[in-house]
Amino acid sequence: MKPAAPELEALSGRIDALLPQTQCRQCGYPGCRPYAEAIARGSADINRCPPGGDDTVRELARLTGVATRPLDPACGAPVPPAVAVIDEKTCIGCTLCIQACPVDAIVGASKLTHTVIAAECTGCGLCIPPCPVDCILMAETGESLTLEERGRRSQNYKKRYTARTLRLAREHADRRAAPRESAAERRKHATVERVMQRARQRLRERGHS
Does an H or E element contain 164, and which? Predict the structure, then answer.
């Protein structure tokens, strides 16, 4: 029997908390939360997160009661911690990597050099495919994180991902609202023009009387 909606939401949240929050999409879902929701519904397996590795598979198995299993090779293999590095001499400032970064860890402006905030980079690699000049590479950090350190880092990634998602939603809403505002302004100007025309007409009529 499928869990009720509130139970499903709660389970999704607990599953999401176990994921590394890299938002890399290697699992086949557009982010960690959608993957967590799919696991909670029973429509996705627990072994589709290469960044989490076998540790995350075991944690998910304990939480969900599903038998543990090896990582699905179709999703990729675990790799050492790494961050994106931009060759600033080659960067053309196209902003495509900025748009691709799920946690706003790349800063820069159009036609200006971009750079990665290494401490905020999840290592997802999503910035690499859209780069038209191949100026981005992944550099291993050499870090060996404890479970507690991984947890803190995941929370920070999630916070930044959520902030970016909210920012994009606001920008989308602003873009949708802009035409309505322009139409309102046009109606206002048209009303003012009609009032002015009537005023000019009355002045002409007075002048002829």
Answer: helix 147-208
What amino acid occupies position 109? A
Sign of CA dihedral 21, 110, 170, 175: negative
d(C-alpha 151, C-alpha 162), whole Å: 16
Nearest to 159 by CA among 105, 107, 109, 195: 105
Specify whether the CB–CB gap between 71 and 47 falls below 8 A: yes
Architecture label for domain 5-75: Orthogonal Bundle (1.10)
Whether domain 82-140 has CATH 3.20.20.100: the reply is no
- Each residue's pLDDT tens digit, 162-201: 999 999 999 989 888 876 656 777 777 777 667 667 656 6
The residue ranges of every structural domain in the chain are: 5-75, 82-140
Helical (H) or strand (E) element with 160: helix 147-208
The pTM (predicted TM-score) of the whole model is 0.80
Instruction: Please provide residue 168's backbone torsions phi and psi, each rounded to the nearest 5 degrees.
Output: -65, -35
